[in-house]
Amino acid sequence: MKNLLLIILFTGLFFTGAQAQEAIGNDPTTTVEFESTTMDYGKIEKGSNGIRTFTFKNTGNYPLKIYKIYSSCNCNIHSKPEAPLAPGAIGEIKVTYDTKKVGPIVKTITVYANIAKKMIPLRLKGEILPNNY
């Protein structure tokens, strides 16, 4: 019985992943160029403003679609283009890193879009210093 449940679970996960990949693969691919794929906060004080903006341009021939943005860190995605960006258009992704935790910043945000590699890693780096440092 347990083996049957495992088979059903893995089959469901396989088809779900295949459908998600197919949905991403249906749009024509384009190209994108970020001003920088690394956001360097430098050394900032605890509680400082953690909002930063990644700026990019659709350098391809088809509309750029941002499917989703995955964050594996203490950060939030404030805004991203909701509508497809026309060729030549400029877009922004605004992120906020939680600056209440002292220590190094070494995090990655992954952007999934209709580009050849399917995803672009954006990196956050820096260091949060204690107050009165």
Assembly context of the chains: single chain
**Distance linking N and C termini:** 60 Å
Which fold name is given in CATH as the topology?
Immunoglobulin-like
CATH superfamily: Immunoglobulins
DSSP strand content: over 45%
The profile of the biggest β sheet is:
4 strands, antiparallel
Rounded mean pLDDT score? 85
The CATH architecture name reads Sandwich
Shape: elongated
Which class do the helix and strand fractions yield? alpha+beta
Q: How many β-strand runs?
A: 8
Helix content: 10-25%
The overall number of domains is: 1
Unreliable sequence segments:
15-23
Describe this structure as you would to a colleague.
The chain is α+β, with helices and mostly antiparallel strands. The protein has a single domain, classed as Immunoglobulin-like, CATH 2.60.40.10. It contains one helix and eight strands. It has one helix at 2-25, and strands at 32-34, 38-45, 51-58, 66-71, 75-79, 90-97, 103-113, 119-129. The strands form two sheets. The chain has a four-stranded antiparallel β-sheet, with no helix packed on it. Strands 2-8-7-4 form a four-stranded mixed β-sheet, with no helix packed on it. A hairpin with a 5-residue loop joins β7 and β8 (119-129). The radius of gyration is 19 Å and the shape is elongated. It starts with a helix and ends with a strand. The model is unreliable at 15-23 (pLDDT under 50).
